[in-house]
Design goal:
By secondary structure, the chain is of the alpha/beta class. About 35% of the residues lie in helices and about 20% in strands. Strands 1, 2, 3, 4, 5, 6, 7, 8, 9, 10 and 11 form an 11-stranded mixed beta sheet that branches. Strand 19 (about 550-555) and strand 20 (about 555-565) form a beta hairpin. Helix 7 packs antiparallel against helix 9 and helix 25 crosses helix 26 (about 680-690).
Length: about 750
């Protein structure tokens, strides 16, 4: 590694960088977060092997560099920083590179608030040889002074310093996120550096706070949730610091410093799903009386503590340790505090005294998420339900990655995560952008959301569905998400450029124009309306309105679509009010049959060998389509035809749910954004069961809800699955509660972008 000599800042508006020769290799200093949460046991062990002679400690508190080992007469004298250099992070880094070049480990010590913090720096190649996975790398830095009071001089100088750092790092501004903050002291500069490293390790811009002017120069939208990047491209941060100098000779100058950081191979530790402010307590037993006894025990332990005392992580771990996954009954308490937990436990005790709950199997749920059922459905009829188009929303689950960083990393490696979720629209600064998405964008993002939650439930929590079905285009999401299609990510670009989605049944509605035999200059004003009415009432009126269609039947409501004027006239004749969806799509109407062949070809995809093998050995998941009664045969042609039949024909969701129930579906879990189908399924199942006493009980659960915290919604879903005794892994909940557990961090394999 070609390390730079110690850096000195100039006082004439010029900029000095850490790389004198542009042909030299850029810096590659590995940086590790030194806190106990993010520094995994392997890294801590390796760093502990450095002897005193190999360690250099620099404390920002007094800005004095102190070596643990004092140099002998044969060793070079340690550079003593001047007062000006003590305020300069880039000067300190210049000094640090000298030690790093000698193979030493540099520890930067500072305070963030009242908390002591450390950053460990060492040569990137040396770190790789030691199998250390850095949280980030310092690739270059530069500094320069600006003269205050001169118009635009500060802006020009700051830009020149940032550009010099990027040149030194051999990075393009087009691939860089710029972040500016004020750091008047060395400690403040080190805090900013830690924030930058944390942002890269957490793949989120949220840690970048302070007096900022965040600007992404690559044209992507600013967002403070997940830090999306182009596939196989490393995230690069240019951290720009401004310091007001107080040295007598520099009273009229500011110091600009820029550091270029690139992402490392170590992910930040995930946030804990359960803590003192998000309580989740599973309690299992062989009988209701035993459940009551354990609730009384819990209440007693809460009463022992002083008022407003937090429920400790140790107490949470105690209840998880006592939980028996094989017990026939279980309840879950959820609360935001100890006081709320008392109320939830008392409400649960009251419910357990209720005859309807205890003997008739009426499920009990509280708004906080606590739940219990005396007649659990188990996983025999566990069915994943995939919602259709129109469920995605602005900033949906934008903090989910903080709790499941390894999952997001996996999805990033498998395909273009940004494109899969349509991040420029969903996570745009203007929330109205998501509402203006066209049909293809909504379709891609909806499938992406379902794909994400499918992997979360099946891989992280080890939940295995027995059946699957989809609402409208949810059928495509079903095949893409459950490891059937060989290259599901290829569908993103295909959908973006599809004539079907962009022109035929949306946009200009060319299929509708053909069906109605309209001239090119004749306008189509298309709309759809949700109306509470019986489908037979609507069907009786359709002959009088040839340009209005019954598109969807769903419980006690229907969706009519077509010429807006015709639809409004039909509603008037029906004597009903309709809620306009204001969405242009001719799916599930007669004109869509004109593109049936195209749709079938579009969705006739190569299948994974594993899916074909499973199908040959009696596939464990039965896939149910709205287009036919029997489960879909798992082969490319049958899948393509089933999707096309569903896509182009009127959708009877009520019949689909009844058919699934007759095939054994009992517990429906909606997998995707919001909760489009859960309420519908409950209504359909209730209406169906009231018509026949032979039908078994069913339940519908959503794993996400618009307007609610994504983690709380997920935990509510898991709580209900636990109460229904569905086998699942509690490891993601338990592991952070163990004082002896290693941090839930993840490292990237070789070949990751850096």
């Amino acid at each position: 590694m070609n390390l730079a000599p110690p850096l000195a800042t100039t006082h004439s508006g010029q900029v000095e960088t850490s790389i004198a020769d542009k042909s030299a290799k850029p810096l590659r200093i590995a940086v590790l977060l030194g806190d106990a949460v993010n520094l995994d046991s392997h890294s801590a062990q390796v760093l502990g092997t450095f002897t005193e002679r190999e360690r250099v400690q620099i404390c920002a508190a007094n800005a004095i560099q102190s070596a643990v080992h004092r140099p002998t007469a044969h060793e070079p004298k340690v550079h003593e920083p001047s007062v000006h250099e003590q305020r300069s992070l880039t000067a300190l880094l210049g000094q640090a590179t000298t030690a790093i070049e000698q193979g030493k480990l540099v520890e930067l010590k500072f305070n963030d608030g009242n908390l002591p913090q450390s950053l460990y720096l060492l040569d990137g190649l040396h770190a790789a040889k030691l199998r250390l996975h850095a949280h980030a790398f310092i690739a270059g830095f530069a500094a320069g002074n600006e003269t205050t009071g001169v118009v635009n001089a500060g802006v020009a100088n700051a830009a020149a310093v940032a550009n010099a750092a990027l040149v030194a790092a051999k990075r393009s501004p087009a691939q860089t996120v710029q972040h500016q903050t004020v750091a008047n002291t060395l400690n403040e500069a080190l805090v900013a550096l830690r924030q930058g490293v944390t942002a890269l390790a957490a793949r989120t811009q949220a840690p970048l706070h302070g007096a900022t002017d965040i600007k992404q120069t690559n044209g992507t939208n600013h967002q403070t949730g997940y830090w999306f990047s182009d596939q196989h491209q490393a995230r690069v941060l240019c951290l720009n610091l401004v310091a007001k100098t107080s040295h007598q000779a520099d009273e009229s100058r500011n110091l600009n410093q820029s550091l270029v950081l690139s992402q490392g191979t170590q992910l930040a530790a995930p946030k804990a799903l359960v803590d003192e402010n998000r309580l989740f307590i599973p309690i299992s037993s062989d009988s209701i009386n035993e459940l009551k006894a354990k609730l009384f025990q819990l209440l007693s332990s809460l009463d022992i503590g002083a008022p407003d005392t937090s429920f400790t992580l140790h107490q949470l771990a105690f209840w998880f340790e006592r939980y028996d996954a094989n017990a026939p009954l279980a309840l879950v308490l959820m609360a935001a505090s100890s006081d709320d937990l008392k109320l939830e436990a008392k409400a649960m005790l009251t419910a357990l005294e209720n005859d309807a709950v205890c003997h008739h199997g009426q499920p009990f749920k509280t708004p906080a998420g606590s739940c219990f059922t005396a007649k659990p459905l188990g996983d025999t009829g566990l069915t994943f339900v995939y919602p259709g188009v129109g469920t995605v929303y602005a900033n949906m689950f934008n903090n989910l990655h903080e709790y499941f960083p390894a999952l997001y990393h996996q999805l990033e490696r498998e395909g273009d995560l940004s494109a899969m979720l349509q991040s420029p629209q969903i996570y745009a600064a203007d929330v109205k952008t998501a509402a203006g998405m066209n049909l293809s964008q909504q379709a891609i993002s909806g499938v992406g959301a379902s794909y994400l939650f499918t992997k979360l439930l099946t891989q992280v929590f080890n939940i295995k569905p027995k059946m699957a079905l989809g609402y409208s285009m949810g059928e495509a999401a079903m095949w893409a998400s459950l490891d059937v299609w060989q290259t599901p990510h290829a569908m993103i670009n295909a959908t973006e450029n599809s004539d079907i989605f962009n022109h035929a049944i949306s946009g200009e509605l060319t299929a509708v124009r053909r069906a109605w035999q309209l001239a090119d200059d004749e306008a189509i004003v298309w709309n759809s309306f949700v109306v509470r009415a019986d489908s037979n009432e609507i069907k009786a009126l359709l002959p009088a309105f040839p340009r209005a269609y019954l598109a969807i039947t769903q419980g006690d409501t229907c969706v009519i679509a077509g010429c807006e004027t015709s639809c409004k006239a039909l509603l008037a004749k029906l004597g009903k009010r309709g809620i306009a969806a204001n969405r242009v799509t001719a799916m599930h109407t007669a004109p869509a049959m004109l593109v049936h062949g195209q749709v079938q070809d579009f969705y006739t995809q190569a299948l994974k060998p594993e899916a074909l093998k499973a199908a040959a050995q009696d596939l464990p998941i039965r896939f149910i389509s709205a287009a036919q009664t029997a489960p879909v045969t798992v082969d490319s042609h049958s899948i393509g035809r089933a999707i096309a039949d569903t896509f182009c024909s009127p959708l009877d969701f009520s019949t689909l749910i009844q058919n699934a129930t007759e095939q054994g579906a009992r517990l429906f879990v909606e997998v995707g954004a919001d909760r489009q189908t859960s309420t519908l399924i409950d209504k359909i199942s209730h209406a169906h069961s009231s018509q026949s006493t032979a039908n078994a009980a069913t339940a519908a659960i959503a794993c996400n809800a618009k307007g609610a915290d994504a983690i709380t919604s997920l935990l509510k879903c898991l709580a209900q699955l636990i109460s229904h005794r569905v086998p699942l892994s509690l490891a993601p909940l338990i592991q952070p509660l163990s004082a002896n557990a290693a941090p839930l961090s993840s490292v990237l394999p070789k070949g990751e972008p850096q």
